[in-house]
Each structure stands twice: as structure tokens, then as C-alpha cells.
Here is the input.
Amino acid sequence: MGKRRVLIMYATMTKNTEKIAQVYKETFEAYNWDVTYLRLKGNIDWKEMQKDLYFDDYDVICLGSPIVGGSPLQIVQKLFSFGGGGELEKSVQKKLDENKTGSEAAEAAVPPKGPIWRKNRAPYAGVLNKSDSWPLGIVFSTYGGGFYGSMEAVPTLEMLGHYLRSYNVNVVGKFCCGGKETGPAGIPNGVKPPKDFVPGKDISSLEPADVVDATVYEMADGTKMPGSYFFHYDLESKPGERELAKAKYFIQDFIEDYFMTYDGNPAVAISEIISIS
Ligand SMILES: Cc1cc2nc3c(=O)[nH]c(=O)nc-3n(C[C@H](O)[C@H](O)[C@H](O)COP(=O)(O)O)c2cc1C
Here is the structure.
């Protein structure tokens, strides 16, 4: 049997999500998979890359992005949506403002420029291509979760899943973990947050919020650990050793359960594996 192939694509701003993507790469390689690894950025020469980007040539597609303002990064929206992220809406609205009819306005919807993910087009627009292969998919993210924790990750993971599904990828894996952030939730354990967060300003120079001092918890060995003012405990250290281990075990489970089957064929994929913390 030839080597299995995985395409790992991710976007990142401060490199937290890259750490997860890197662990994915190393883990697939340890199982002797052929890995194509790509950081999604604006300045990529897509024509040059195109030959490596057809989902038809892969067994697994992984797509990752941090959560920024509640959504995946813009580059991901641009590359995988059908014109989302502002352009489509703007061009149609412009026509409507010019008193054009709905169908004339819709004609203004210019397909996004960029990579082509599938070799064959559907016979007509607006449907999936029935003859496509169905690689398995994994979506992943890192996030602050300062507002309300792990549920904050769900919309972005679902959006990433939707992007892959719209190119006939069978998404069966979701992974998400905390990622140190530079925003309001990126304050060390036990440090009282400021009443008003001012980006770039040292917290000690700002008026602290009117909340009680952090409770201190004692471990069995006597270590004292101050409580967290935000959902993730010690977000500062994430993704650290523990999150990277989770990422590795997640991919190991995925490879073993879905691909190391008795007959060499992938498992029937009506299950999901999910690690969201
Ligand atoms: C401008 C900005 C906006 C952010 N918005 C959110 C958000 O809406 N929800 C969230 O959970 N985390 C948010 N975060 C935290 C990031 O998702 C987190 O730090 C992530 O690990 C960054 O990944 P990266 O290092 O791969 O860019 C935000 C971070 C930045 C810098």
C-alpha cells in the first residue's frame, strides 16, 4: 500500500495555532504519512502551489485558524468561502444601490481569486460535485475564550468545518485549546484585571477592576496556585506541554481509529472525535 497523504493548512497571527499544526505534522510523519504543510498567508503564489492543493489527491485535509473577533482569520474566509469576508456583499450591495434588479446584482458576485480545491467542477453552479472523492477532515483552532470559555470556540470550528464540507470533505475531527492572547484575557493568574483594558499599556499602570483578590489554592505538595479571573487557567502558558500532548494524542487516535483497520480501508466515518478545552 502506498503512503497515505495529508494536507495540513493553517493560518496564524502570533504562532500559537502553528504549534498545533507542527505537532500534527510530526505525528502524521511518525505514522509514515506523506505530509503537505502550508501556512495560509496573503502573499502565496497560488499558481505555483496549485498542483499540491487538490483535495482529490489526499486522504485527509486539516484546516486550522485562531479565533479573532469570534471568527476564523480573514485569509481563511477569503480562500474557502464563496466570496465571503465582505467582497461579495459589497459588490452586490453596490448594484442594488444603483437600483439594479436582484439578478443583475447577483451577477456582480465575482468568484474569489485564489487556489482551486477540487479537480472537477460540478456540472452546474450551486451544488456539490457528486463524483468527488471524500477525504476525511480535521478542523482545529487556538483561542482565548475569555468571555465564556470553550463554547466560544464552537462557531469558528463549525465555520472551518463548513468550509471543508463545501468541498466534499467529510469532517470527523475537531480540536481546540487555549492560546496565549495579547487581549484582555491574556492577564496572568492571580493578577487583578484592569477596569478598562488598554491595548499595549502595562496593567500595573491601570486602575484595577473592583473585584475581590484571587483565591489561592494549595496543592497536595504545598504549591500555592492563585485563582484565574478568566475561563482558561494560566492562559499565558498555552499552548504548552499539556496542549501539545493533547494535539499529539488526538492525531494518534484519529490515525489509528480511522486508518489502521484490518483491511487497509478507512473506517466508515459516521463518528466524530472531538477535543475542545
Ligand atoms: C485581535 C485579537 C482578537 C481576538 N479575538 C478573540 C475572540 O474573539 N475569541 C477568543 O476566544 N480569542 C480571541 N483572541 C485570542 C486568540 O484566538 C488566541 O490568542 C490564539 O491562540 C491566537 O492564535 P495565533 O497565535 O495562531 O494567532 C484574539 C486575539 C487577538 C490578537
Q: What stands out?
A: Residues 195 and 209 are 4 Å apart (CA to CA). The beta strands are 5-10, 34-39, 60-64, 136-143, 170-178, 216-218, 224-226, 273-276. The chain has a mean pLDDT of 92.
